[in-house]
Amino acid sequence: MATVGTYIVYLSRLTFWRVAFALGQGVRLSTRVYHGIDLIRILACALVVLNHFGEFPDNQGALIFPALKGFMHIGDIGVEIFFVISGFVIPFSAANSRPGQFLLKRFIRIYPAVLVSSFIAFGALCLASGNAASHIPALLRSLTLLPVGPWIDGVLWSLAVEIVFYCVIAFLIPLGARGRLMLAAWLGISSAVFTLAVAAVFYLDLHGLQQEAASSAIRYYWKISLVRHGVFFALGMLIHDLSHGNSDRSKRTCAIALTAVGAFQIVLFQHLSAPSIELAAASSVIKAGIWLLAIAALVVCIRRRAEIASLVGPWAGTVTSLGLLSYTLYLNHYTVGGVVGSALVAHGYNSVATLIITTSTILAISIWVQTGPERHLQDKLKQLLLARRVALART
Fold first, then answer.
1. Cα(81)–Cα(40) distance, rounded to whole angstroms?
2. DSSP element (H, E) containing 110
3. pTM of the entire structure?
4. Which neighbouring-strand residues pair with 63?
5. Interval 337-362: pLDDT, tens
6. Distant-in-sequence, close-in-space partners of 115: CB < 8 Å, separation ≥ 6
7. Is pLDDT of 152 > 80?
């Protein structure tokens, strides 16, 4: 326990101000930065982390962090919030880009952290199991960004869904804004029809197919095809269009409808997946409330962008870095957090000490990945790939 005390004292010396100053260094600010959205990102990531921490089992099957049990089946709402934000920001990247250039920029943005984090997760699993060979197939799936798992880290399923979304966006780039609105309409309608169809079969128990509907609806192919989560991407894209001078009553009505469909889907799938009716009833209300608050906050952050920027002031770089940190934290909390937490409990540490050490470890790793290898690899890839592409275009 003395080691734990020494570790905690050391971490306490890394005050918030020092960490905040370090995070803010070298951040390249854009004229399209939305500081409020950066804060929503890190809060959404925190919800996902708490959700996973709340369900981590030790070697005996007991919860490692019983105090976080309340976040189980609730914190995963952060993923849907991420999808809405992605739908809002991706049109910025797609604007004035050719399809290949857009995909290349997305690759440079997402792959370096995946590369480094996958090897970190692989190392953690090897140390825990002592069997490196059994984890190599999952590592290779992660490194090659295959859309089908299992991956070295379970959270990569959502990145696979994002990549499919990027590919569809790239395909429609030649159509410009009209193509993005067509995609938003298709995603929103198909997702709404899917949600209503599943709800009809499940709630009305049509033909006695309630259990079959539940097991079928949660399958991965509905996710990777964007049918299930399409409503969230569509809402983000529509909010983007509304916030850039293309506002009319019909689009505002569609945005409200998509928000309602998203809330209904969240409630529906909570009933499909929760282990009990009582838990589903309580947690679905909480998740729907968080969802509605997040969308309201997103709209306010977009509309009050200038005011928020003035409030942030000299901390702009740090706030932007916190938004970026949500990505590396998302990639590194699940596998590493589970391995570290289980190891500490197995060695007799109590829940509080285990939580402090595990959280500190994944934060340290995530900050290191973001401020070190991720930035370095992104810069190198930009020099290698984008410069080469420009040179080839001129020949």
1. 8
2. helix 99-129
3. 0.89
4. 57
5. 999 999 999 888 999 999 999 999 99
6. 143, 377
7. yes
pLDDT at 375: 93
Return the pLDDT at 389. 57
218 and 274 in contact (C-beta within 8 Å)? no
Give me the residues paired with residue 238 across strands: none
Average pLDDT over residues 303-332: 90
- Long-range contacts from 340-344, C-beta under 8 angstroms, 24+ separation: 340/124, 341/53, 341/56, 341/58, 341/64, 341/65, 342/56, 342/57, 342/58, 342/59, 342/64, 342/128, 343/128
Structure tokens that stand for 68 in this block: 């976080």
CB under 8 Å to 19, separation ≥6 — which residues?
367
Q: Is 277 exposed, middle or buried (0-12, 13-18, 19+ CB in 10 A)?
A: exposed
Beta-bridged to residue 57, according to DSSP, are 63
Q: How far apart are CA 175 and CA 200, in angstroms?
A: 36
As a whole number of Å, the CA-based R_g of the chain is 22
Query: Per-residue pLDDT for 22 more than 70?
Result: no
Q: How far is CA 153 from CA 101, 231, 373, 374, in A?
A: 28, 25, 19, 18
